[in-house]
Every structure is written in structure tokens, then in C-alpha cells.
Amino acid sequence: MEYLKLEERIDIWKDSLREAGAFSEEQLYELEDHLQERLNDLLASGYTEENAFEAATLGIGQPMELSAAYSINNKPLILKQLLLFFLLGFPLVAFIFQLFYFTWNLTGIALIESGLRGFNYSLGMMIPGTILDSTSTS
Amino acid sequence: MNKISKELTAASSIPIILSILQQGETYGYEIIRKVALLSETEIQWTDGMLYPVLHKLEKKGHILAEWRVAAETGRRRKYYRITKQGKKQLKTEQDQWKTMNTLFSKLWQTGL
Question: Under an 8 A CB cutoff, do A61 and B55 touch?
Fold first, then answer.
């Protein structure tokens, strides 16, 4: 297993909390400070970095469990995030869809055109004089 | 002695926190450490669960919080202290727990 520095482990742990949602940055900092205090105590009592980290994160609680407890107090924060999604995220998603639709249309038209050309050419080969392309009539 | 159940721990968390803060300003980790010491580790909180209770008490105006740099770590830390309103709330909580205590004492003394 890849050895990670304690600071890297803390960053990963903090990211997992961030992903779980329901925490403000200030609240994350407070939890991180708590984790640091616990780690210092465990390391001072002879724990290895790995064992101390495991014990400290276990003691502080699972991200989903904490997220659920914090979200009760943080309803306005979650509502703010939702509002932000509808104000910024939703138009962004709509724009991406439109872009996709526009590209699809262009590709679709090009495909239909090339299909028609192919059909026209085949028809011309079978029945001379039926090629619809204006350039072939001269 | 058995470990205190999660439910009882949750129900007693507010008077415990307010009682500790009545002794003076402190921060989350120190509260956990005091509870573990006083209860001889029979009461075990999931550490992180303390903070939503502190934030709730802060929102209600029972406690005040302030960010300051801790001299020993050089990191910012959030310190909590009890307000007048919080002291009143603690008095109410104390009365309620005393009532429960009296009730249990009577029940168990008389063996009813």
C-alpha cells in the first residue's frame, strides 16, 4: 500500500467530508483542528502515524454520519447551495445540452446529406440520366 | 459499569456542555476530554457529534463563539462561552434532571 504523509491523509479525509456535503469551510476547519488535537495526543502516547490517524478519524465519526448531523443545523446552507445550483448550475447544464443538440443536428444533417448523395449516385449508376446532381446534367 | 447508551448520552449532552462552559470558556476538543475524564470514559461521544450541538446552542443564543489563534498550536480555534440566556437554560435543565434524580432515588429506595 502506498505510504501517505499525515498531512495528505488529513487532506483526503477533509475532501471526503467536503464531498459528503452539509459543511461550511469554517466547520470543516473546526473538525480538522479537532482531528489535529486528537492526533497530537495519540502520537504523544506512542501511536504510529497510521494507527493514530485511523483511531482519530474513527473517533470523530463517519463522513455520512457527520454530514447527516450537520445538515440539520445547516438547512439554510443546503438551501443556498440548491439555489446556487438553480441559478448557475441549471443554466449551465441547459447550455451543455443545447450545445450537444446543436452539434448532433450538424452531424445529423451531414449524415443525411452524404446518405442522399450516396443514394443519388447508386440510382444514377443503375438508371443512367437519373443523377439528380445539377453538375452531372451538363 | 455499563457504557451509557447513545440515547441517554444525546439527551444529556446539552446540560453537560452548558455545565462545562459555566466553568469557563473552552473549545470542542477540551469539552470531549473533560467529559471522558469526569465520566471515566463511560460516556463516549462520537467526537464530531459534539459540534452540531454546540452550533445549535450558539444559534439559540445559549452560548457565544469566537475564533482566535491558539497560543500552543498557532492554529485558529473556535472558543465557546456561556451567555446569560445559557445560564438560565442550564438552571432549567438542572431542575429537570434533579426531578428525575429524586424520582429514581425514591423508586429505588422504596423498591416500588
Answer: no
